[in-house]
Amino acid sequence: MPIIVATVAFGMGIDKPNVRYVVHVSMPQNIEGYYQETGRAGRDGLPSEALLFYGVSDVIILEKILNNGENAAFNATMQQKLQKMKGFCLANTCRRRYLLGYFGEQLTEDCGNCDRCFAKSRLEDVTVPAQMLLSAIVRTGQQYGLQHPILVLRGSKSAKISEEQRALSLYGIGKDRPEQFWRSLGERLQVEATSPKQERPCPY
């Protein structure tokens, strides 16, 4: 199978109607670019797939790049677009709904063909963990990043945790779940809190 690799996808595969897969190995800067690049697949009308790998480090790197720009207004706009791209990656709703909603279109039903739609049967009610995490954020003074309240919830012995925080009733009550669970939950809550109503996850 022929494979095309590029660091900049502009024009890549534009004359290839039979591209079956588009794989991103890091997060694009904005949804416009992502949408254009995934649009290279399936131009012949046959089934095709898009796969996106992303991580928190992608956002950090892209934010630093944007912050180094000389045009403050442009930087601010691109930062907003980056947050929307992050929202797309973390959102718990149908991917196609999110994409079309970003461009001002409304999908009346889920696409049934993305990872979020496939995962509906595996959804977990995280109401209680979400309450625990929010409580930890509030009771530690709302002055830390996400990592600190997670350390408290997981009962960390780190010197960063004060004696007062160790005495909290919620200290250690989340140690049965891995750090990544709490981080993913926190990031998702942040996305939902800042997303327009139509982009929030559907109440499955």
TrEMBL record:
<keyword id="KW-0378">Hydrolase</keyword>
<keyword id="KW-0067">ATP-binding</keyword>
<dbReference type="GO" id="GO:0006281">
    <property type="term" value="P:DNA repair"/>
</dbReference>
<keyword id="KW-0347">Helicase</keyword>
<keyword id="KW-0547">Nucleotide-binding</keyword>
<dbReference type="Pfam" id="PF16124">
    <property type="entry name" value="RecQ_Zn_bind"/>
</dbReference>
<dbReference type="GO" id="GO:0009378">
    <property type="term" value="F:four-way junction helicase activity"/>
</dbReference>
<dbReference type="GO" id="GO:0030894">
    <property type="term" value="C:replisome"/>
</dbReference>
<feature type="domain" description="Helicase C-terminal">
    <location>
        <begin position="1"/>
        <end position="86"/>
    </location>
</feature>
<dbReference type="InterPro" id="IPR001650">
    <property type="entry name" value="Helicase_C-like"/>
</dbReference>
<dbReference type="InterPro" id="IPR018982">
    <property type="entry name" value="RQC_domain"/>
</dbReference>
<protein>
    <recommendedName>
        <fullName>ATP-dependent DNA helicase RecQ</fullName>
        <ecNumber>5.6.2.4</ecNumber>
    </recommendedName>
</protein>
<keyword id="KW-0413">Isomerase</keyword>
<keyword id="KW-0238">DNA-binding</keyword>
<dbReference type="GO" id="GO:0003677">
    <property type="term" value="F:DNA binding"/>
</dbReference>
<dbReference type="InterPro" id="IPR027417">
    <property type="entry name" value="P-loop_NTPase"/>
</dbReference>
<dbReference type="Pfam" id="PF09382">
    <property type="entry name" value="RQC"/>
</dbReference>
<dbReference type="Pfam" id="PF00271">
    <property type="entry name" value="Helicase_C"/>
</dbReference>
<dbReference type="GO" id="GO:0043138">
    <property type="term" value="F:3'-5' DNA helicase activity"/>
</dbReference>
<dbReference type="GO" id="GO:0043590">
    <property type="term" value="C:bacterial nucleoid"/>
</dbReference>
<comment type="similarity">
    <text>Belongs to the helicase family. RecQ subfamily.</text>
</comment>
<dbReference type="InterPro" id="IPR036388">
    <property type="entry name" value="WH-like_DNA-bd_sf"/>
</dbReference>
<dbReference type="GO" id="GO:0006260">
    <property type="term" value="P:DNA replication"/>
</dbReference>
<dbReference type="GO" id="GO:0006310">
    <property type="term" value="P:DNA recombination"/>
</dbReference>
<dbReference type="InterPro" id="IPR032284">
    <property type="entry name" value="RecQ_Zn-bd"/>
</dbReference>
<dbReference type="GO" id="GO:0005737">
    <property type="term" value="C:cytoplasm"/>
</dbReference>
